[in-house]
Amino acid sequence: MTAIEPGRVVAVVGTGTMGQGIAQVALVAGHPVRLYDAVPGRAEQAATALAARLGRLVEKGRLDASARDTALARLHPATRLGELSDAALVAEAVLERLSVKRELFAALEDIVAEDCLLATNTSSLSVTAVAGALRHPGRFVGLHFFNPAPLLPLVEVVSGAATDPSAAERAYATAGAWGKTPVRCADTPGFIVNRVARPFYAEALRVYEEGAADPATIDAVLRECGGFRMGPFELTDLIGQDVNEAVTRSVWESFFQDVRFTPSLAQRRLVESGRLGRKTGRGWYAYGPDAARPCPRTEEPRPAPEAVSLHADLGPAAVLREMIEETGIEVTRHHAPGASYGFIGLPGGTALRLTDGSTATGDPSGAYIHFDLALDYRTCARVALAPGADADPADLRAAIGLFQRLGKEVSVVDDVPGMIVGRTVAMLIDFAADAAGRGVASARDIDTAMKLGVNYPGGPGEWCERLGARWAHRFLRALDGAYPGGRYGSSPALRRRADLEAKQGRS
Q: How do strand 9-13 and strand 343-345 relate by DSSP bridges?
């Protein structure tokens, strides 16, 4: 299916930030654009704002002045819906209220031609529900741009229950022709990004609610150990606590209050207090010229041990053996029959082990200190440690010194199951596997969406390939034992993949 030809009219209804952004994308792609807003005068104001946006692009050398003038000549504010009758595509970006959107599209259906695509930019409503009042819902799709639309490449192309495949393909091709990276998605709560991303926020909030670490430390660990661009607390402050909490609550309610999507009471209290983040001057952190910079808990320098022992393979942290040996610390290797993953023996007898979803306390086989998962131990700047209750304090100091010798900042957190990065990544892998297994989107499109939509350092499918579905399944099984109730139960898709790995002999 071919894209909508550049010379055909694209209409945008709703002239807020997102509507203006979509209009700008269509204009630059060569379409005549009609702007309409139900509030008198708003379309003209939006046209003026768009002219200013394009002018700034010219000033920055990103757009030729003649191209700007040509584009602006194709921009026309409309004062009534009837002026959109010749549109080949109508993209809606109005209030996120089902009744408003349905009424709008019912009116449009009587105005536009039969081959006109109708598209909603909703991020939280069901595409199927919005199209429910149409006589011909087959031409209706979701075109979910990410804000700011002119800059962010991702567009989720969402097929409702009644969407014709040809309409979805035409929308997909059009988004690609506009220079975007489209991904195909079924109509599910949260689509791809807002569905799969929930654990990134939820696990951090749960660690905080348990008192295991403060927001600044959790953010630092996910950034500097996990490789995420921003931590969840600073990111929700940027998004707006009310906006992020509303998306979480919408997805949870749409899934009939599935425990895996349960919202956070701590975030709810933050919203109720009016601390919505940057836009109000305070959220998890304070903002403004006199605000103190968030400071993660970071351990003072400690001496590294002269020698450690290595018991079996360290699994996803196997590279640590080479890194430790490169520093000159003596490593004595021991065979550990039957061990899934090994550990590093510290001088006082405490075992330093990669978190596996359990706690470090209470293991009958000995005293443990857990260290968190890093997606790249060589390049990460920080590592988190969680000592068990019976860990030797001197060995904790030795573990801190060991990672500091490797060039890492060290944060010590309470002994929470799965710690921070490990539990977050395991849950993201499972959510992505579940979405792919249910036909929400392909594994490839899910990875693309998460990397482009929320700037993840890798796709959950890529992490699953590297770490293994068996690793994620075992990790979640341990978390499920620590937190019974179903939140951490592996999805059928992840279990099937783990079983397949077991048959293939993958550890």
A: unpaired
